[in-house]
Amino acid sequence: MVSILLLGSLQLFAAATLDEARKVELRGLTDRLKYQTGKIALRDGIAAIHLPDGFRYLDPAGSETLLVGIWGNPPAESKLLGVIVPAKFDPLADESWCVVLDYQEDGYVKDHDAETINYDKLLKEMKEGTREASEERVKSGYSAIELVGWAAAPRYDKQNHKFHWAKELKFEGGEENTLNYNLRVLGRHGILVLNAVARMSQLAEIEKAAPEILGMVEFSEGHRYADYNASTDKLATYGLAALVAGGIAAKTGLLKGLFIAILAFKKFILIGIFAVVAFFKKVLGARGQSR
After folding, report:
1. Nearest Cα residue to 77 out of 285, 248, 254
2. CA-based R_g, the chain, Å
3. Which of 97, 89, 151, 141 is closest to 119 using CA atoms?
4. Which one, 41, 72, 256, 276, has least CB within 10 Å?
5. What are the backbone dihedrals phi and psi of residue 149, each rounded to the nearest 5 degrees, phi first?
6. Residue 203 near residue 152, CB atoms below 8 Å
């Protein structure tokens, strides 16, 4: 009995030591992050971020350190543009959140359907597609997922061609539902994709910050939505409805979602890129095609 208790104590001690060592390692990575302020050029100058005092930026290398090295995420299939974080951001803090930036050069997305989209109907179809996708996730060894509903209904700024919406997702076994907050900036040749990494309990904070975040990211002259040339430029194969449904994610093969683990607090969060394949095919066939 004594030997069993001793073995158990040694195992607990070893686990605690490993946990402390990991925390030290994570803090070391955190301390090496180099944040930038001011104006940040993106993708060889096609766009820029004008950071106000309340936000900072991590370049692609720093973003990989954060997302992969610190938060334990699998490496992205392509290099991200970077990450926007609040000025007092601490990767190991329970209340931390960030916005991941990417660019998808899928062409010019027509916004002619902006005022005619039935978002209630769209949500119903997305829920059905999510159930089908969830079955495939489970077969692949991932947890089941449910689209609970809009955390924030889609809103499109037709004057500035900026779009944002949020979904509430429930993962089997999760203690708290996941916030899937999406921000998009439409351009001449593609879309700037911004995805907030946060928990549902942080919805109010993200909602408050969303207009400011959208306002700080702009395409450069020559790459703006208004610069589109119908005779020379590529037209995207989907519209705004498919964009909300996850068109970009489906095209890039992110079928299972990308998870972030803030290990120090055993908190799992979904990066705001999620696709429902069955629904996306339906959208492309029914109303996602630009004509």
Report:
1. 254
2. 21
3. 151
4. 41
5. 160, -170
6. yes
The answer to whether 274 and 196 are in contact (CB under 8 A) is no
Sequence-distant (6+) residues with CB within 8 A of 149 are 123, 167, 168
Query: Rounded to two decimals, what is the model's pTM?
Result: 0.78
Indicate if the alpha-carbon torsion angle 83, 98, 126, 108 is positive or negative: negative
Q: DSSP characters for 98-130?
A: EEEEEEE---B---TTTTT--HHHHHHHHHHHH
Q: In this structure, what token pair is assigned to residue 266?
A: 């055993």
Local mean pLDDT, 10-residue blocks, the chain (291 residues): 42 51 85 95 95 96 90 76 94 88 93 90 87 80 85 94 91 81 95 88 92 95 97 93 66 34 32 35 42 42
163-191 b/e (C-beta count within 10 Å ≥ 16 → b): bbbbbbbbbeeeeebbbbbbbbbbbbbbb
The pLDDT tens digits for 172-218 are 887 788 888 999 999 999 999 998 878 888 999 999 999 999 999 99
The pLDDT, as a whole number, for residue 59 is 96
**Two tokens at 69?**
């090295």
CA pair distance 47, 41, nearest whole angstrom: 6
Count CB neighbours of 252 within 10 A: 17
Query: By the 8 A CB rule, do 147 and 125 touch?
Result: no
3-state SS, residue 185: strand
